[in-house]
Design a protein that fits this description.
The chain is an all-alpha fold. 68% of the residues lie in helices and 2% in strands. It holds the Pfam family DUF3667.
Amino acid sequence: MATADVECKNCAARFAAATGFCSRCGQALAVERLTFRKLLADAAHQLTDTDAGFWFTLRQLTRRPGAAVQEYLRGKRKAYTKPLQFYLVLLAVFFGLTELLHLDVVAIRYRIMSQSGLSWFSRIFATLLDPSGEDTSRQVLALFQQNIKVNYSLLVIMLGCTLWAGFRHRGFTLVEMVVLALYLVGYKYLFETAAMLVMITPLGPESRLSVGSALLMLSNGYLWWAIAGFPDKITLWSVVRALLLLLATGMLLHSFCLLIISL
């Protein structure tokens, strides 16, 4: 008895449903909607899988991040590295290189932020959230820098929550927005790694500071651009919406830091 043909969500080829797998690209027929359980299971299975399309994923997130993540969420997953795996690999590269080269991430990042003027973000949020605290901005910045590993993990969670608030009317779930955050914050580590490595180049102190601050600004600019291009093409409204979502994420992080300081 003949079985019905179905279309592969990854490559659009037709194949017999009874086989369970696409004969062209090998992707499984059953592509469930993402859940936290599936996200963790995929990461545990593929964390050390070097053939999972890491360079393809990196290239797509460089050229068209919003569209690439949208493809992944719609089921075109065969060629992409899983989101948690991608995030953890770049996290390991960042902290592995800084440990290997004996770079003090906290001290370097604090110096770049404070001396280049990038700490104005902290001052703005601290003033909005606690206008009476004169030293609040310095305390928030210091707390963030001293707990940078924890705060980067919090950034994924809080960015995922604000993205969900901004896109749930489009039918996206919280876990799908955490997937978007994992890819984008993982890519952000590339800029952070480059900013750290600049500190060991033969450039002069002022030049290292300028390049480092430019890379940190580019990392935030990347997030803005990527979110503005998700899930559709970039428009004036999507640019404004992306900025508002990033500001909301920043306020959530600073609110958390203020809560810790007040305890």
